[in-house]
UniProtKB/TrEMBL annotation:
This is Putative myelin and lymphocyte protein-like. InterPro entries: MAL, Marvel, MARVEL-CKLF_proteins. It comes from Scophthalmus maximus (Turbot). GO terms for biological process: myelination. The keyword Calcium does not apply. The chain crosses the membrane at residues 25-42, 54-77, 89-109, 121-144.
Length: 152
């Protein structure tokens, strides 16, 4: 009888396994939707600068850290020490909270900017939608990472 090599719920994948296992399958959509928020907010005039500066910080920070996190998991650097499951949960939980605050700020600024150029208003609406999709992705990733951490 052939032995099957299934990965236990708590183990952390590496290599192409990050593209096929939950919660790690969310890395690419998080990058795509976070990058879209970054691009759409950067493509308009940043006014008022304070809340939209926070949106830019969150989208760039989460994009860069998620990309680095995906690279760490992809090359298997996390196999050298323990605690990665907890750090994965903590990062995605913080990213979900960051994106929640940034998405709400972006929605408030967009609602206040109804009068003006229609093209910019539509770009801002798209950025709000993508920000809330990113919130959902990071939140689901955090929940699944918490489950993996519990069983790790």
């Amino acid at each position: 009888m052939a032995a099957t090599t299934t990965q236990p719920m708590g183990s952390l994948p590496s290599g192409l396994g990050i593209c096929t296992t939950a919660p790690d399958i969310f890395y690419l959509p998080e990058l795509v939707f976070g990058g879209l928020v970054w691009i759409l907010v950067a493509s308009t005039h940043v006014e008022p600068p304070n809340p939209l500066g926070w949106v830019m910080f969150v989208s760039v920070f989460c994009f860069v850290v998620t990309f680095l996190w995906m690279i760490i998991f992809g090359v298997g650097a996390h196999k050298n020490s323990s605690g990665w499951a907890a750090v994965d949960f903590a990062y995605h939980g913080v990213a979900a909270m960051f994106y929640l605050s940034a998405g709400v700020d972006l929605a408030i600024v967009t609602m206040a900017r109804k009068v003006g150029e229609a093209r910019i208003y539509h770009i801002d609406i798209a950025a709000v939608v993508f920000a809330f999709v990113a919130i959902l992705l990071y939140f689901i990733h955090a929940i699944l990472s918490a489950l993996r951490w519990k069983y790790f």
